[in-house]
Write the structure tokens for this entry.
Amino acid sequence: MNSQPRILELGSWHYCKDIYPDSTDTLWTSDRPIPGGRQNPKGFAVCTPWRFVRAMRDVRQGKYDLIVVYMPLRPAWHPRYWLRALLRQPTRPLAALSVFGVSWLRWFKLPVPVAVLDMNDAFIIGAHNFFLLDKATVAFKRELPVDRWHILCHSAHPALPTRRIRRNSRWNRRLAKIQPISLPATLISTEALWQGEQPEKTSDVFFVGEVAENSWVRRVGLAELEALRVKGLRIDIPTERLPHAEFLERLSKAWLAWSPSGYSWECYRTAEAAQCLTVPVLNYPTVERHAPLRENEHVVLYDVTPGSLTSAIERALADKLRLRQMALAVRDHVRQHHLQHAMVDYVIEETLRCAQATRTNDNVLCTATAFGARPAKPS
């Protein structure tokens, strides 16, 4: 970006502070302490009531160009939040009140663009976050169902939202603000791989991850991987926790990396495999995606019917030259769109663009009204 905007970040993540530390102030609202290594850095503080009020005053005075807010998974008044925060800091009750920081925004008019991010694994949005959809210039959501109305299950509606809700104009405006966002990946600094040198492949498929206490997709798919091993394929499934360097090495030496759904559809393994020049194998998405990885260009996709994973792996391994091309393509795509800095820039640029578009439309409408013209009816 040519001119970096000044950002106020509020919530339980610090993506903007990581990427733009000098132009971002972060107010931490988690029940967890500030992450290690970030104790008392400039512009990173616990969101006490006084700091919050001071930040709102600074917003009104023009100190910030943009507010980035992270949706909490549960309401601040849930005992899991405030009680845990109090128990962790019993001598600092005001610091424990920080878990209410995001909810305090409902009482303030925000004169700058607002980006609201839901980075949770859940596909629903709780009722305690509905006001943030009204405050948002743009709302970004991971795990955004292909039918957006499903985010209102068990919140705006006790089950599947009905036509009464789906024709509600306020809800249509709220959902129209939402855009998908990807899980931000961490840059892997493996120099030889990063320069494009493809490592020697010594296994066909690599997988490591929880199975028994995780997604049913993993439990069913693991049985197919074991059957492929019996058929003679080289299946690398570590049974112990690997040191990070060894994990990357073994991942990079596989042609394919199985990256199935976990608690959510997206998985960190996908971007890790891409950066190690290993082609990810994913079950078909259940969510809207930002800058999606495309089938047969970047990744191998399969449905969850029995035998589909087996067929997809066998077809992919039959063309090793194609896999090498896909490995380079998926690495470049992840580097361009799915690393943390790319996600942060996307949020900033899209929110400011939408804010500018809204102001322009409002000015056109006001000008037309001033000269007695009627606004055009939407088609």
Observations:
- The longest strand covers residues 7-11.
